[in-house]
Amino acid sequence: MIKNNYKNLFRLKNKNAFVLGGSGLIGKEIVKGLYQLGATVTILDKKNTIKEKNINFLKFDLTSKNFDLKLNKILDKTKKIDIFVNASYPKDKSWSQSVIEKIKLKNFHANIKNWTCSHVWITKIIAEKMRKKKIAGHIINLGSIYGLVGQNPNLYKNLRNMNSNNIVYSFVKGGLQSFTKQMAITFGKDNIKINTINAGGVINKNNNKVVSPNKKFIKRYSNETPLGRMANPSEIASAVIFLCCDASSYITGSNISVDGGWTSK
After folding, report:
1. Most CB within 10 Å of its CB: which of 108, 131, 172, 189?
2. What is the pTM of this model?
3. CA within 13 Å, CB half, 136
4. Tens of pLDDT along 55-94?
């Protein structure tokens, strides 16, 4: 006789979830999924792209001054934080100049600050809040395959506005791998699960028309991927949502690749 009710392991009723960067390409799919499984969802972002009255929105810019105080103020008004997903992408105007050959030291410092504050400091804030409130919560950061392997310059060759060798992105996403493990060790005794999803290349579509990347890049990338294609945003979001559910209750400190087999080569 089957005793476990596996349906309940994927239900998020009475769970309170925050999604930083919830208005972005992958973030909004994560928000939709959490909401559909019954969670109360709050988007933290600079703008709201989901017009659903039952999904909360709070304006938040992690690159602003005293962002940590603002986040703490938001969280202090919240009775519980069961789920926190970081899908932010805090690039600034100098982001296109972050390739090794072009980047300037001041821009390096600025971008490193934005990205490390996003991944590291915010994860620390959330984990400590969960510990204080004695919540067995889930924290998921959105990583990248470029935190595991180097960028293939042939994919970007002769493509306008697309550059490889982004020194900031590889540094931060690579560091996120070991940071995830350290945080899992630190907060495991509090039953707080901390994981990272390393996403492969994602296609951005609007009304079934591809917005980005361009056709040449899609073809090149797909030819190098075992599954022969790039990901849809929902495929990355589905893995994130799994880590938010009780079905993943014994997973922490993991860096899970959702990349069509890219890092298997």
Report:
1. 172
2. 0.94
3. 9
4. 999 999 998 889 999 999 999 999 899 999 999 998 878 8
